[in-house]
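Weekly sync notes, structure subgroup
Attendees: PM, AL, DS (notes)

Item 1: joint prediction request from the bench team. They want all two components modeled as one assembly rather than separately. Inputs as received:
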Amino acid sequence: MPQPVELPDKIYVGPVIDEQHSLASVSDKVGGVVLRRKITLGWTFGLLMSFAVLQGLMASATMLFVKGVGIWGINIPIGWGFAIINFVWWIGIGHAGTLISAILLLLNQSWRNAINRFAEAMTLFAVMCAGMFPVLHTGRPWLAYWLLPYPNTMNLWPQFRSPLAWDVFAVSTYLTISAVFWFVGLLPDLATLRDTTKKDWQKKVYGMLAMGWRGSARHWQRYEKASLLLAGMATPLVVSVHTVVSFDFTVSIVPGWHTTIFPPYFVAGAIYSGFAMVLTLMIPVRKFYGLDDIITMRHLNNMAKVTLATGLIVAYGYEMEAFFAYFSADKYEKFMIWNRMTGPYWWSYWTLILCNIITPQFLWSKKIRTSPGILWIISLIVNVGMWLERFVIVVTSLHRDFLPSSWGIYIPTVWDWATYVGTLGFFMFLIFLFIRVLPMITIFELRMLLPGAEVKEPVAHA
Amino acid sequence: MHSAAVEVHPLYGLMAEFDTPGQLVAAARKTREAGFRKFDAYSPMPIHELDEAMDLHDNRVSLFTLIGGLLGCAGGFGLLSWVASMALPLNIGGRPLISVPMWIPITFECTILLGGLTAAISMILLNGLPMPYHPVFNVERFVNASRSKFFLCIETDDPKFDYDRTAAFLESLGPEEVAEVAR
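Output from the run, pasted for the record:
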């Protein structure tokens, strides 16, 4: 068990978990949301609303299957548009979940115990949303399996020197490992639900999912080992995934894409947007489900700090992009950055700076870091900013490259928006289901934070 | 193991219930020191002190994970190299067919994929899961093992098991309750 560190009053914002809690009370509180809480009007409304929004995705995907990618605003020279913007945005959001569940586990940051389950669920759902876009963008989504290496009668194989093929492996591995990590983490909690529920059908369902977990010390020992190994592998995995995503850009020769700073700056941006999304989701959930004794001010404060730190790395990335353009003395690079700032899409660049660089500076203040309302608004702004970042990278780089004769303008159509907003509906729909079906906080890890979990042997053995 | 007449004890074991993890660790240590080997501790969260108290050091999960990861690595690299050099060799300006730097991302992802899956699956299988039925669930109060209580069960399979003496031994550990575990 990690030793608590004494913090000076100036930076101390409260305990990781309310001192009133006991081993039994955390189980009952978190499990109670699933097992005992009545279906509320607010939850039903949220679920139905997100389901309604999800229909935007259904409609636009249907339209795309019928008519093709022409329904989107993409055309040469801007062949990438919303599909790739949203792909990168969603997958970036997912990265905070893995950071919280894996990297912070390895770093022994015990405050993560209260938020990792939720963040991992967010990762899974975000990666599902992300995965849809490249598939839809292939133009003939029903042939997307051509991306996989399998023996076929055409005797053709994917081009493994292409970042597109790397993406297939990176994203599918990421989704699989995230799901496995999530399920392994759920096992002991599913056993708790199985043992505490009064309803027979719940006993059966959770019992089957828990696979007969009984908390044996021999099991825990292997379990802890497997968790650490999974965390150790998920850590380089998450870095590799966004690096591979950035390779989609950097391996090309387009000015604004062909740059060495992309991999680290994409990874930092991913964690930045992911933490913003965790805040966006957790602040309301914490309020509506009365979980502020488990997801405490300490958590909000820490998450805000990570957001600020990664935001500064992102700011450094923007600066370096501009500096590289200047220092390279490459006229296409120089034009690219000038066009970004003053060209037809100038508003997107400056809004991006406002959202991603100026706004997070408020997080230097402890007062703001510990006011959920303001923090929530900042997190929304950062989400918008990170979406704009991908818009700027994709659109402003493509729309004016080397030859003025091949310049163009990209205007997203209503179908672009419907697809994007539809995936937001899909994401929220899954989140709403998740919080009522599975324990949204890792109960067994919460127990480890409690004084009741401390091992004090009654008598010294001879 | 006697193959001819295996005497099946009507009970699975005797189970003691404790209130705190400290008591459980102390009890587990004493049980081991008393010479019992077929016993297990049950707790609602991992207790690292138990590994030492019960002398648990099963490293097979790590070993299998290493093997899985290496197989993934070799498999990924092998697939790419085979495809590019045998199945579909493309001569593009005389460039090498097996371009190792370009193979790194997929090889890495395959390593993680197989390593991660092996870690999870080997943990589950080595734990003998899925196992929906287990005798310990017959103890009524055992539902608390996943909530707030700590249990120690000495199994009848242990050569040192003797109903009266084991029950007395468990009582001496200061438990809340000692219960019989039906099969």
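Discussion: Chain A has one domain: 23-148+157-453.
Action: AL to compare against the crosslinking data before next sync.
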